[in-house]
Write a structure and sequence with these properties.
There is one protein chain. This protein has 20 residues and is an all-alpha fold. Helix content is 90%, strand content 0%. It starts with a helix and ends with a helix.
Amino acid sequence: MINHIAHILHLTLRAAYYFT
């Protein structure tokens, strides 16, 4: 479960970097 959350957070951070 934690791994899944961490994966989502990682994707979110990556998306944030791309969108910024």
